[in-house]
Design a protein that fits this description.
Elements: E1 27-28, E2 31-37, H1 55-61, E3 66-68, E4 74-76, E5 79-84, E6 90-95, H2 109-120, H3 130-134, E7 137-144, E8 147-152, H4 159-162, H5 185-190, E9 198-204, E10 208-213, E11 224-231, H6 235-244, E12 249-251, H7 258-262, E13 267-272, E14 276-282, H8 292-300, H9 304-311, E15 316-318, H10 342-351, E16 355-356, E17 362-364, E18 367-368, E19 370-376, H11 381-393, E20 398-404, H12 406-415, E21 421-427, H13 435-438, H14 455-465, H15 470-487, E22 490-496, E23 498-503, E24 506-507, H16 514-517, E25 525-527
Parallel strand pairs: 2-11, 19-20
Antiparallel strand pairs: 1-25, 3-4, 5-6, 6-8, 7-8, 9-10, 10-11, 12-23, 13-23, 14-21, 14-22, 15-22, 16-17, 17-18, 24-25
């Protein structure tokens, strides 16, 4: 998922944390580093079961046609250049020559066409993020061995940006004769073949994944000899291993631990803003939650500044929508606000027909207002959910909270949509194009997990996709943000500051975002 989508080292997904390099010291080309992930990964960026536990690993193995530069703009990777037709319906990409798959086979246009035509665009396969691409791309045509055309059904100005966001290319030759790519266990769980700077050398289920450098990587021999990902679901255990020197980098899930990390002379703490927002999703398949007054009431009932202070220790700001302040050209702060106001929440619910029962729980048509709210044992999701449960209890709404493991949560909430409310987050490209998360066509099968549908919003998001010019895009996305703040497709919680802790011996990070830094992993090294 472009979700939760960032990755294991940064929440969504999946996410995005700048790293600041320390002063250069003498380096070694035989260094090794150890990172962390929360569960057994899936070595296939398009698998419906590949999310935060897999994303960053897949970045090292499966590059895309583009990657992001220091300004978070699309830069060449497996494609060296691109252009769009005058009507915006055809993008032509020139591919890099001389690229080898890690098994020695040549990379070419057939691999790109296979990845999209046979995997991503096949609706029946329900590829991870597939609805994002099916929304606009109809086919990828091979022009010659090193040129492909993306044929679109409607303009998509941000296509090169999305091609650099967890959109790795797969090897056609390895999938020959494979009828179900998600059941290709040898590839997806043990022996993937990629064109990235690293390749998988050892998988110990439930314990670790070891990647070694790919000496044939087109960008030059990586400086690190290997990168090992330990599988550690518990954030406290991750912290303990970082402090002991057994891990080189983690995303800090509990801000209370920052001072403890700073006191360790071998570690550095990096704070950054990024294009991440936390939310409570309300399933629009539940008719109770389609009433905008109910959604607004449930947000008025949550004291977000207090949650930011208690859960994030102040490392965040109240969210107003899906476009974060980091996007200065497009962020619109002048939208409807929802300060903590339980009285207003109760009044809105009363207008919607919800009245207190004898036990204080709101009722309508003789049925109590009880909301099923699953959550996962991942970083701060459980305390966030329990606080929301308490705030809603104060206005007479019962949240029935059940906690499960991360992979089960993904299946229940994201894949099957078996929930009524759930706290989570999105990490998205640093582009205002949020259509894949809100468009009506992405409900039920895509990243529109509340299954929210609004033709007016669809039209505004389409308008923003038609051009790359800043002014018309700003107008379209300002209007879209105003509509989303009023309608609340999601209950927006906050934009967090990302907190990354890493060992000072790890150097060579570009300091872009974590997702982008992993696209330049051949430059990493460790000091002697």
């Amino acid at each position: 998922m472009s979700w939760l989508l960032t990755a294991t080292l940064a929440f969504g997904a999946l996410s995005a944390v700048p790293l600041v390099s320390v002063l250069a010291q003498s380096a070694t080309t035989d260094g090794t580093v150890t990172f962390v992930t929360t569960a057994d990964p899936t070595f296939n960026p398009w698998s419906p079961t590949a999310f935060v536990e897999s994303n960053l690993i897949n970045e090292l193995v499966f590059p895309g046609l583009t990657r992001w530069d220091k300004n978070l703009k699309p830069a060449p990777d497996l494609a060296t250049s691109w252009k769009v037709s005058s009507d915006g319906l055809k993008w032509t990409f020139q591919l890099r020559k001389g690229v080898k798959w890690s098994d020695g086979q040549d990379f070419n246009a057939d691999d790109v066409a296979f990845t999209f035509n046979d995997i991503v665009l096949k609706k029946e396969l329900a590829a991870n993020g597939g609805s994002t691409w099916r929304n606009a791309v109809t086919k990828v045509n091979v022009v010659n061995p090193y040129t492909v055309d993306f044929i679109l059904s409607r303009p998509w100005a941000s296509l090169p940006t999305y091609l650099g966001y967890y959109a790795g290319i797969l090897p056609q030759h390895k999938f020959q004769g494979v009828t179900d790519p998600w059941k290709f266990t040898d590839f997806n769980k043990q022996n993937p073949v990629g064109t990235g700077p690293f390749k998988v050398s050892q998988v110990v289920s439930g314990a670790s994944v070891k990647l070694v450098r790919n000496d044939t990587y087109w960008g030059g021999k990586p400086k690190l000899q290997s990168v090992t990902f330990k599988i550690i679901p518990d954030s406290n255990a991750q912290l303990a291993q970082l402090l002991s020197g057994d891990l080189d980098l983690i995303s800090v899930g509990n801000p209370e631990t920052v001072d403890r990390i700073k006191s360790n002379p071998n570690l550095t703490v990096d704070l950054s803003t990024s294009n991440i927002y936390y939310f409570v999703a309300l399933n629009q398949d539940d008719p109770r939650l389609t009433d905008v007054r109910v959604r607004q009431a449930l947000l008025y009932a949550i004291d977000r500044p207090a949650m930011i202070k208690s859960v994030l220790k102040g490392y965040g700001q109240v969210a107003t929508g899906p476009i974060a302040p980091i996007q200065k050209e497009y962020y619109n702060a002048s939208v409807q606000q929802y300060p903590y106001d339980p009285a207003k929440a109760k009044a809105l619910l009363a207008q919607a027909g919800w009245k207190p029962g004898p036990d204080g729980v709101l009722q309508k048509d003789g049925k109590p207002f009880v909301i099923s709210m699953p959550t996962a044992s991942y970083q701060q999701l459980v305390p966030i959910t329990l606080l929301v449960q308490q705030y809603w209890k104060n206005i007479g709404v019962v949240a029935d909270v059940k906690t499960t493991d991360w992979n089960s949560y993904i299946q229940q909430v994201i894949v099957k949509r078996e929930y009524q409310a759930s706290a989570a987050w999105w990490s998205t490209p640093a582009d205002p194009d949020v259509l894949p998360y809100y468009d009506s066509s992405a409900a039920n099968v895509g990243n529109n997990i509340p299954n929210y549908k609004n033709p007016k919003l669809d039209a505004l998001l389409e308008q923003g996709r038609k051009t790359s010019a800043v002014l018309p895009r700003r107008i379209a996305y300002n209007n879209a943000q105003a509509l989303m703040a009023k309608e609340l497709p999601y209950l927006y919680l906050w934009y967090p500051q990302s907190i990354t802790a890493y060992n000072k011996r790890l150097q060579g990070m570009r300091g872009i975002t974590q997702a982008a830094d992993f696209q330049y992993a051949n430059e990493w090294y460790v000091s002697k």
